[in-house]
Design goal:
The chain is an alpha/beta fold. The chain is built from eight helices and five strands; from the N terminus they run E-H-E-H-H-E-H-E-H-E-H-H-H. It has a domain of 107 residues: 3-Layer(aba) Sandwich (Rossmann fold). Helix 6 runs antiparallel to helix 7. InterPro entries: PIN-like_dom_sf, PIN-like_prokaryotic.
């Protein structure tokens, strides 16, 4: 399990990317405390109303895993994710590369879904075949670029 920090803040894009490849159950390996700003929950509820197929399973998973929702005053959901990570001295998981860059520029340690899967491979949670399938599926569904896919597939043999 991932336990190097006090808390982990999850962004909508990270959750959607995991849902698209059937990886929501892997969230149980993120510990200790999993947090989301209220804005992430609201984005998912709007997605559910608009018929986004990933929204309902994500909301159910967050509830099952007792992910903590936190109210954050911010001008946008992205800023709320960064603010919450800073306030909690937490690491952040997002699949939004510009958001990840902004967070890192503000001193927040931020990871993408591909980093999360690689961490699970290194910890023995995922076997190589499943890791390869998930990375390939992320690429096929437009969640990571071809270069990212190649880099993360190369890492598994390092």
């Amino acid at each position: 399990m991932y336990t190097l920090c006090v808390a982990i803040v999850l962004d909508t894009s990270f959750l959607i990317a995991l849902a698209k490849v059937g990886g929501l159950d892997l969230l149980k390996h993120l510990e200790p405390e999993r947090l989301v700003p209220t804005g992430v929950i609201e984005e998912l509820k709007v997605g559910r109303r608009k018929g986004a197929p990933e929204a309902q399973p994500i909301l159910e998973t967050l509830k099952q895993l007792r992910v903590q929702e936190r109210k954050v005053q911010a001008s946008s959901v992205d800023e709320a994710v960064i603010s919450l990570a800073k306030a909690e001295r937490a690491e952040m998981f997002t699949n939004d590369i510009p958001l990840r860059s902004r967070a890192q520029a503000q001193g927040v340690i931020a990871f993408g879904v591909e980093d999360f899967l690689f961490l699970l491979l290194c910890r023995g949670v995922l076997i190589q075949k499943e890791y390869q399938r998930l990375i390939g599926e992320l690429w096929r569904r437009g969640q990571i670029g071809k270069d990212q896919m190649a880099r993360y597939l190369d890492l598994q043999g390092a």
